[in-house]
């Protein structure tokens, strides 16, 4: 293991606790604006965010719908896809 990783990485418990905190904050806000009849649409960007999104929605008591937003590179020299 690289010697700096212990200082850089967060352990699973710390991440899970923060996800729970975020879900609690989000649930309070959604309670103010959401109706129970219509699902809330979650829009994670790209598939790399799906694990985090799944962890988050497990903590939400609301009816949810999940749609993934695909993103592609813009044409031009400043941005390009590497894979």
Average pLDDT, rounded to a whole number, is 82
Q: What value does the Rg take, in angstroms?
A: 17 Å
**What low-confidence regions span 5 or more consecutive residues with pLDDT below 50?**
none
Category from helices, strands and their pairing = mainly alpha
| First-residue to last-residue Cα separation | 27 Å
Please trace the helix and strand order, writing H or E for each element.
HHEHE
Q: In total, how many beta strands? A: 2
Q: Note the overall shape.
A: flat
Q: Which range best describes the helical content: under 10%, 10-25%, 25-40%, 40-55%, 55-70% or over 70%?
A: 40-55%
Main features:
single chain; 7% strand; 83 residues; mainly alpha; 3 helices
In words, what does this structure look like?
The radius of gyration is 17 Å and the shape is flat. It contains 3 helices and 2 strands, in the order ααβαβ. The protein has 83 residues and is mostly helical. It has one domain (5-66). A two-stranded parallel sheet has the order 1-2. The model has no long low-confidence stretch (mean pLDDT 82). Helix 2 (12-33) packs across helix 3. It is 41% helix and 7% strand.
């Amino acid at each position: 293991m690289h010697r700096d990783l212990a200082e850089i990485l967060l352990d699973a418990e710390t991440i899970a606790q923060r996800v729970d905190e975020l879900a609690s904050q989000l649930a309070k806000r959604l309670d103010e604006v959401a109706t129970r009849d219509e699902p809330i649409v979650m829009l994670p960007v790209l598939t790399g965010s799906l694990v985090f999104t799944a962890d988050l929605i497990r903590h939400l008591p609301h009816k949810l719908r999940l749609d993934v937003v695909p993103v592609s590179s813009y044409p031009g020299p400043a941005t390009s896809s590497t894979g």
